[in-house]
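1st attempt posting a full record on here, be nice pls
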Amino acid sequence: MLGNSDTLVLGIGNYLMGDEGIGVHVANRLEQMNLLPEGVTVLDGGTGGFHLLEYFELYDHIILIDATLDNNTPGTIRKIKPRFATDFPPAMSTHDIGLKDLVSALQILGKMPKIDLFVVSIATIQQQGIELTPEIEAVVPAVMDHILNLLAEKEPFLAV
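the predicted structure (as tokens):
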């Protein structure tokens, strides 16, 4: 069910451009696992943009996964808690402006959800291909583990 005010795991990227599509790869694999807690929805957000605005308005918590060209070693995973457009890494691959503009729009509307952004450093934006490079493919399980651990933290604590 969409828009249950819980958590949305949103993979961002162009699936057809190699490592740039890591967010989509991770989202698809998480969805296939079928082990996510109740109240978690997974979405392939493609290349972002304003068509995602409605999802940001419907959920209290968004977990984004995206590639970044930040000059770190390819496969470096970082977790960022962006509250403003300027909190995004300086080179958020091919959809940089879309996500930053989306965050700015949410701020103007006063509808900013809690956002956790997992970025994976990539070396280049490949022009074609659905396969991830070996360096990036190797970190997909770790990105998935980080997301699952973050979701586990959301589980309510029940006192006995």
